[in-house]
Amino acid sequence: MLNKVRHVLWRLLGIDYHHALRIHDYVFLKNDNFSSIGHKTYDNGALVWRWTKAELKIGKYCSIANNVRFIVDEGYHQASRITSFPIINNFFKDELVLPSGKDKNDFLKTIEQREGIVIGNDVWIGMGAYIMPGAKIGNGVTIAANSVVTGNSIIPDYCVVGGSPAKILKFKHDKQTIERLNNIAWWNWDESEIKEKAEDFYMSTDDFIKKYGK
Predict the structure, then answer these.
(1) Sequence-ordered alpha helix ranges (H) in the chain
(2) Residue 137 φ then ψ, to 5°
(3) At residue 28, does pLDDT exceed 70?
(4) Mean pLDDT value across residues 30-56
(5) What is the pLDDT of residues 102-123, one digit of tens each?
(6) First CA to last CA across the chain, in angstroms?
(7) Is 77 a catalytic residue?
(8) Of 186, 187, 192, which is closest to residue 212 (Cα–Cα)?
(9) C-alpha distances out from residue 69 to 39, 84, 114, 124, 207, Å
(10) Which domains does the chain have, with CATH numbers?
(11) Rounded Cα distance, 105 and 176, in Å
């Protein structure tokens, strides 16, 4: 029903709704068929850009701000050592078979490129950040607004990163505390248990660990 209303409104504005959908390579995170989103993770309009079915995996209890952009794969721009232009995708966009007789999709599967993004639990991504293909982000990470997390990044647990390219600005806790928090793994508790213990999340880190650490 909502799509029908949107379609009518866009036509009144002189815009072909279905054409507008086709010319964009992105979708809203909540509508992306190849993303897995953990329990209670929410976003305020994050976008996913993709040209393959590479997985975007996001853990539980993550907070994703407005205009965050996940670039899930390279779109084959770095597939060739000769050119950055995606020749196969561009010249044979509507064809299934290459001039040699090879299946286009089978050929593309043989090409290595950075793709896929993995994000841990309890991650906060600030407004306007870009997360590039191949990035791996640990638990408890905070990513500052407008940062660019590059595809060769492995962001360790419980740190704050920022900049372009994003660099570690600080760790939220010492190594032993991080290990203990990961062992507690409160994000794996039942939701009812988290609600019951909600006030404890506002005590000091040391007291929380003393109370729930093993």
Answers:
(1) 2-12, 17-22, 87-91, 104-109, 175-184, 191-196, 205-212
(2) -120, 130
(3) yes
(4) 93
(5) 888 888 888 788 889 999 999 9
(6) 51
(7) yes
(8) 186
(9) 20, 22, 16, 14, 36
(10) 26-173 (2.160.10.10), 174-214 (no CATH)
(11) 47
